[in-house]
Amino acid sequence: MASVLLDSINKNYGQTSVLRGVSLSIADGEFLTLLGPSGCGKSTLLRILAGLEMQDAGTVSIGERVVDGLRPKRRDVAMVFQSYALYPHLTIASNMALPLRMRQLSALQRLPLLGGLLPGTERIVAEIETEVTRTATLLGIGHLLSRKPGQLSGGQRQRVAVGRAMVRHPAVFLMDEPLSNLDATLRVQMRAEIKELHQRLGVTFVYVTHDQAEAMTLSDRVAVMLDGELLQVAPPQDIYADPDDRRVAEFIGSPKINMLEGVVRERGLIDVAGSTLPIEADALAGAHLTLGIRPEAFHLADHGGQGALTGSVRMIEHMGSDLFVHLDLAGIDHPLIARLLAERTPDIAPGQTLHVGVRPDRVLLFARDGQRLLFARDGQRLRREVESAGASITPIRELAR
Amino acid sequence: MSEPLALSSGSEAPSATDGARTLPSLTASLRRSRTLTEALTAWTLAGPAVFFLLVLFFLPVIGVFVIALTDWQFGARTLSFVGLANFREAFADGGFRTSLFNTVIYVLIVVPGTLVLGLVIALLIESGKSCRPFYRAIHFLPFMATMTAMAIAWEALLHPTIGLVNQTLAAIGLPTANWLRDENTALPVLAVIGIWQNLGYAMILFLAGLKSIPKDLYDAADVDGADLWLDRLCTVTLPMLGPVSMFVVIVVALRAFECFDTVKVLTQGGPGHASEVLLYTLYRESFEYLRTGYGAAIAVVFLAIVVTLTLVQTRVMDRKVHYQ
Question: Dihedral of CA B288/B290/B293/B296: which sign?
């Protein structure tokens, strides 16, 4: 078991900068997910951690040992690939035994016929077989050991890939989108199995995905990446409810968070989409802000006016217990999506005018540069000065320091 | 299908019972005529190919089989059936047996030689970064060239006194030889030329095979600890090239069995019978000695070898290298 430390990692491909100063500390036994859209550099970061690629600058440490320049096999990591990367010519047993054979047998001992005659080979091979059988039984693939990967289903192959990583008890498990080749049902099932596996093994997992559902359900902490930068590292609930950055708020959550432009009218009041919401912001009157409101922060209101938004219903999506109501608001070009409880919502039809109230404590405020602005919440207030309305607002991270 | 059934189950109209009799027969005849039209279209489309296959391939093959059972001599007006006498004569004839033996030796040198060298060159080209197209082209050229012309070039190179090969050997103090006139060297030298000719073809196939190996497998091998050159080769590269290697072995073996040009131009099967191969014997018996019946028997033996090789490829080895 080991902690992982990535310090100021930079990586360029020619002129293209793929990773820019990424620093990340992963605790021993933690399940950390690197989440981001395609091309954000998350897989590259994982490959650098595995030793399959070299960073241009920065340091990688595993278990307090700097591993820069070490080959993957010397880093004590195991990796599960998106394509599973099973050797098609080997049986499942041989696939799973390979990492152990490579480590425990010498080059001579691995020779096809002669190797078996050398002292010690037989004992080590027997040990390897025992370990492979034990792991395979644990994963429920014990009956498949004599088959070839081509004869297995996607889910079974995935288990074999996990098994091949497990047999040698690595300090860190690396998983590169291991579920993306599976169908939706199997993906949910395997997700639960991976979570269970992590709890049982208790070793450090670094998991790469572009699927926020996987990231939110599996992880102890999620690291959101975008354009080669690490935007935020936090537990899933914080990433969702308390994002540091507008891009994080927009990436997480389905349907997407509503982003509305607003202007501070006076202390405690913000004008937005023709209404005024009672929201406390540490900004002077006239400051322009973006309000991020999750669809579930809305509730049905009896009338418009202060504290509510009014719009006409464009579309209704029935989700069983909830409704996703798309509302056209005056002066806003994209519809606002509100998630309302189906049982508390009377029959509504497209074209109808609807009032929705907003819980002020659920509104996220962002400065124009996308940085999050905190406001009074739960009696805790972050004191800050804003020099002028709408002007540069000190980023929250600097404040936190 | 459901339509006539629905109609026949109707009870109110007397015509329904008639319909039950006539409609299925109508549908059946419609179906028959549709099948007929389909068959006609199929034969019209396949017709030209079938015709040429028959005329250019199957009929000549049958002809060869028939002639092999006769004592026909090219140009003769009469012939008589002699049964398997031509085959008995061939296998009793020391010349034919030598020719068959030489052919097998030739194939046994050319196939492994081409396979190993083709793979090594493909691996070298793939591992380097510069001048790849150039290396590919120069190794592929012999395969594209006319073998008869190339054979003449080789004759000049191998000339006992003014040839570049002997001059080079003499210059560095090594013994020289009359390569094409010495019974110990004639066949091996022809085999080396055979390797040279097929090398580029094998190399191109191996290069394509190397390109199709998923990079993930090398990454997995790296993480699993198979990161040394030889380990990677044995764990990933060679097994993944299995299907390509099988194809190369069969194709090169077939081409090696068909060896004729170089023998005709360089040695004419000599000295003695030292470099006589199956196709050259066939040619000489049929077109120099005009013993067409006997030549046809050799052609049948040759055909049997080629067909067996092809069957081996499709039946046995195909299954072992495709990992299904």
Answer: positive
- Distance (Å, rounded) from C-alpha A279 to C-alpha A266? 10
pLDDT at A376 over 60: no
| Cα atoms in the Cβ-side hemisphere of radius 13 Å centred on B221 | 23
Per CB-CB distance under 8 Å, the chain B contacts of A72 are 222-223, 227
Q: Which residues contact B30 (CB under 8 A, 6 or more apart)?
A: none
Given the DSSP bridges, would you call strands A258-266 and A322-329 parallel, antiparallel or unpaired? unpaired
Is the separation of the CB atoms in B256 and B237 below 8 Å?
Answer: no
Q: In this predicted model, what pLDDT tens digit does every residue of A114-162 receive, in sequence order?
A: 887 888 888 999 999 999 999 999 888 999 999 999 999 888 999 999 9
The domains located in chain B, with CATH, are: 2-49 (no CATH), 95-321 (1.10.3720.10)
Is B3 a residue whose pLDDT tops 90?
Answer: no
Fold of A4-241: Rossmann fold (3.40.50)
Q: Provide residues of A within 8 Å CB-CB of chain B.
A: 47, 50-52, 71-73, 77-79, 81-83, 85-90, 98-99, 102-103, 107, 148-151, 164
Q: What is the pLDDT of residues B59-73, one digit of tens each?
A: 999 999 999 898 888
Closest approach of B238 to chain A, Cα-based (Å):
10
Domain ranges of chain A: 4-241, 255-400
* Per-residue pLDDT tens over the stretch A271-289: 888 888 888 877 777 888 8
Question: How much is the pLDDT for B219?
Answer: 93
> Is the CB of B219 inside 8 Å of chain A's CB atoms?
yes
Name the residue type at position A220.
D
Are the Cβ atoms of A150 and B324 closer than 8 angstroms? Answer: yes
> Chain B contacts of A149, Cβ < 8 Å?
323
Q: Which residues of B touch A77 (CB under 8 A)?
A: 223
Report CA dihedral (A171, A176, A181, A183) to the nearest 10 degrees: 70
Q: For residue A93, which of A135, A154, A153, A150 has the smallest C-alpha distance?
A: A135
Q: Which of B213, B222, B224 to probe by mutation at the A interface, max A CB count within 10 Å?
A: B224
Residue A73 has pLDDT above 90, yes or no: no
Q: How far apart (Å, rounded) are the C-alpha atoms in residues B66 and A24?
A: 82
- For B267-313, write each residue's pLDDT tens digit: 888 788 888 899 999 998 888 888 888 899 999 999 999 898 888 87
* CATH number 2.40.50.100 given to A255-400: yes
pLDDT at residue A249 in the model:
93
CA distance, residue B209 to nearest chain A CA (Å) = 15
Q: Name which of A52, A150, A164 is nearest B219 (Cβ-Cβ).
A: A52
Q: Has residue B174 got a pLDDT over 70?
A: yes
